[in-house]
Amino acid sequence: MVLSDLRKGNSAEIVKIHADKMLKDRLTSFGVMRGEILLVKGCSLAKQTMEIEVGSTLIALRAEEARKIEIKIT
């Protein structure tokens, strides 16, 4: 399952990030890394962007980025 499959209010644990080094480094700098729990705070109408919370950080992701984050429901 990937992050883009979730809806507002769902939480999940990050299992793996399937992205190039540049994107992985950017996500890691925001606290998005394997083992972290995230909460979906909101999605745009067409699900082109998502707002997630990891720890106390709110992050907006494009749908293409969210599809690269493998998760498991908590």
Please, could you describe this protein's structure?
This protein is of the alpha+beta class and 74 residues long. It has one domain (3-73): Ferrous iron transport protein A (FeoA) (SH3 type barrels). 18% of the residues lie in helices and 42% in strands. The chain is built from 2 helices and 5 strands, in the order E-H-E-E-E-H-E. The chain has helices at 21-29, 63-66; strands at 11-17, 37-43, 49-54, 57-62, 69-73. Strands 4-3-2-1-5 form a 5-stranded antiparallel sheet. The chain is globular, with a radius of gyration of 11 Å. The two termini are 12 Å apart.
Order of helices and strands: EHEEEHE
- Largest sheet features: 5 strands, antiparallel
Query: What fraction strand?
Result: 35-45%
Give the N-terminus to C-terminus distance in angstroms: 12 Å
Helix % is 10-25%
Enumerate how many helices there are, as a single number: 2
The CATH homologous superfamily name equals: Ferrous iron transport protein A (FeoA)
Q: Strand arrangement, largest sheet?
A: 4-3-2-1-5
CATH architecture: Roll
**Runs with pLDDT <50, length 5+?**
none
What Rg, in angstroms, do the CA atoms define? 11 Å
Average pLDDT over all residues = 96
In CATH, what is the class? Mainly Beta
In terms of structural class, how would the helical and strand content be classed?
A: alpha+beta
CATH topology grouping: SH3 type barrels
Please outline the helices and strands.
Blueprint: E1 11-17, H1 21-29, E2 37-43, E3 49-54, E4 57-62, H2 63-66, E5 69-73
Which terms would index this structure?
2 helices; alpha+beta; SH3 type barrels; 74 residues
